[in-house]
## 1
Amino acid sequence: MAGVPWDPTQSQSDFMLRDTCIVLSPDDDVVGSSSKKAAHVFSPGQPRGVLHRAFSVFLFDESSGELLLQKRAASKITFPNVWTNTCCSHPLHGMEVDEVDGPEDVKDGSVKGAKNAAIRKLGHELGIEADELKVEDFKFLTRLHYWAADTVTHGEKRMMNSPWGEHEIDYVLFMTVPSKESVTLKPHPDEVDDVMWVSQAKLLEMFDDKTLLFSPWFRIITNRWVIGSTDSESGEKKAGWWDDLDRTMKTDDFCDYGTIHRFDPPEEHMGGAGDAGEWLVGGDEAVKGMENGVMPNGNNVNGEVVGDSTKKQGAYGKVKTHKESKLSQILHLDEVWSAITLLYISPLESNLESPLIRETFNPLDLKFCDDILCKVSRSFAAVIRQLPSQLLVDVLIFYLVLRALDTIEDDMTYFPSNEEKVKSLLAFHKTALVDPTWTMMGCGEGDERRLLEEFPKCHSVYAALPEGSRRVISDITLRMATGMAEFVDKDLGQGTVDVAQYNRYCHFVAGLVGEGLSRLFASSELERSALAGELHLSDQMGLFLQKTNIIRDYLEDYVDGRAFWPQSIWKKYSAGGDLGYFANPATEEAKKAGLCCLNDLVTDALELAPDCLAYLSKLRCAEVFRFCAIPQVMAIATLDRCYHNADVFTGVVKYGRACRASSSTTQSTCGGCTGSSTGSPPASSRGRRRRGGPASTIRPTTGQPERAAPSSS
Ligand code: D61
Ligand code: MG
């Protein structure tokens, strides 16, 4: 993979977002990548974060035998204020000097990747110059697998539900220098608050000092290996690696490359936002079934999230739809070509009638699911129904389950309090997905309400899916619900606070869909199993679709009192200090500012495009490719239409007939879902939000409008 220069001047939060950690199987095989941030989030859906690779350097002064410690800066996001070994960090994907080791590198002890990463970080954190240490001089000793919630280090109070933690397979690296003077120490203030060379005796004294904090991994490594011990039963003395540095560095006596030593953290580092408890005591048995660095259903959720129930958001008013003129539509030759292709050359066909599907599922329940899918999203229905039969129903149910969850999220009046809504969201995976009789009456509108009311039919089909698919669906449902719950109490009248919050929301409601889909693709064996590990790229696929919708739906969302445009962006352009300013620009100047703001957001979204293309390039099954690529292409077209287009501020920007026609063919092949006789009510009555995929603007020329498309004509 081509490397991108790593920027050591970034802020801590940029590192969190941009550093791409190496996601691991419990056997230390590379299975994917994750942003540093996503990997370190502890939540009910991933109570121990995401397992990734790390290294821990212990640097000794040969002459005095002292070890260099660092105190992590108070501004660090994870484990601030703790004393720890010389340097601990992560090898990353995509570095100019490769940092990714494979099994062979571990077997022969070379682990050049981890060592390269160590050199990079010793320079960045401590200011040690590149020529002062040599990659060859590191001694790789062993690996340990541990996790720890960051419950202790955030200030005075124990953060029982800390959202952060570590979950790593850590490569322990020793290095010696002839004397302290051999290395320059210029600690980076964002990383390190203090450094200290200590003897063994001094360190033991510090360990006893209750006013000092230590990183859990440093304590584990030191007590287990670095400092010698006496066996309590035999009284036998065991040498520690620090006791005879010469032997440690020059022989392989202490090296163990075949074992991954597993440790649960000390009691005080259990818990965290996902309420994680003892786990690795079970050794290799315990880690069986890990997927993409996460233990599926490995949650210890207490399910009780208490919310402030005061805020209710307003129902939205109807906003105008901007359509394109006929002439301008005809000028989109590419779209016309797509339409012709789909109409006359190769219409998407539904695979729902396949014998495999008929035999596996209750036909009446499946028919309900298929019908309701067509009602709630024509566009996704079209791309889902052309999937191969071994994947189709899994994705269909995945869609309906999340649509049902989203209906709960989006109903602004059904629940007596936010607290009740949060409860309902967080329970969904163990009510709707477990109890075959579960229903919810009167929530949402139209076909979505029906989906919830007749949910047992969905459950019946869900229950007949392979266990692996159910696990993915249930896991993503819980994680999405947890994310939605986090936002229930937020006042979004003026949008999200900043880009981080905007990204976070999009991750929960769409990025996770991407992850779930990749896992379903992989488990169907239509795609390579490694796709399931492409957490980052999968996430970006969802973000791109969701951001496009959010940009397009500016006015609807604003009128609705639930907007997502980030303040850190739009406040740069709004003299009035209100998001609604763009809808009623007082001057020419103000109008221009609005367009600049819009362009800023479109540009932000477009930054995701390369990752989306990278994701698409990994697909090898034509139908899966089509399923993924069509919504992306529609999103690009939507962004194209929105760029520098003042219509975004006065209504909904829509596609023309060409795109819609292309989907009408897909409808014609899907028996039983032509238009609507039951019909959705016009979606305007009470706080229902309506957003389809970007492809939702592909609609049939006849029948009722797509759920996403309030029609002005
Ligand atoms: C490949 C192909 C399709 C992909 C993908 C990768 C990655 C992510 C996604 C689709 C998801 C994109 C969501 C974009 C549309 N946004 C919404 O519908 C918002 O709700 C989000 C929560 C429910 C997500 C449901 C969903 C959507 C598409 C799927 C799927 C599940 C499962 C399988 C396949 C596609 C939007 O909804 C409001 C409303 O319309 O009521 C919102 O609340 O913003
Ligand atoms: Mg929603």
## 2
Amino acid sequence: MMAGIPLVAGNWKMYKTPTEGAALARELRQRLDRPGGPDGVDVAVCPPFPALPAVGAALQGSGIALGAQDMHWEKEGAFTGAVSAGMLVDLGCRFVILGHSERRQHFGETDATVQRKVRAALAAGLTPIVCVGETVAERDAAQTLAVVTRQVGAALEGLPAADLGRLILAYEPVWAIGTGRTATPAQAREIHGALRRLLTERGGGPATRILYGGSVKAENAAALLREPEIDGALVGGASLVAEQFARIVEATRPA
Ligand code: PEP
């Protein structure tokens, strides 16, 4: 069952200066803003930290929401280089990506740190987009379900059922991120169905949106998003090109 309005979120990764980011945001706004606000699909962009103020200003009054790509779990402290949930809220962020595979791979993110960040984000009123997904070696070893079950179990550990509808899951097979290889709709269907069952077992279920991420392009978005358990997309590379991102949003818009 579709969990409410679909969401298309752009992960800009370490691309776009504040000036470049504001220009991209203005172009997105031109392409996506409709009179009366967004129509049938939620849209968010997640620029790098330094671009958040400029992009937020460029999106002011539009239907496009702002998100960040990571945060620390503490409110403040001697954590050089880190950013807190409260700082993101103050900049107008509604979303924060947590546990992205690039954070896990390059920056020592673990299931335990994702768990702390999810709690801190919810406590601050942010909507976490919690990323899970298997590597190619794990898929080849038939470990996909075990891996995403472990990652989701850790991320949601101890959360009351009522909080499950306040977060978003993103299934992002690591082998599909930035590679041009996409999970087939059938592969995504299997894992999204399993994630939905995990949520249901925890007393949540239909209210939690489950996004797919991994080389989503305008060309493949419609087929993926037609799957009943795919409630939107987390888009990396294609979110850096306004025309492509806008086409993905259009492909997501319910008919
Ligand atoms: C991502 O960074 O979350 C992602 C899915 O990247 P891409 O769309 O480039 O594969």
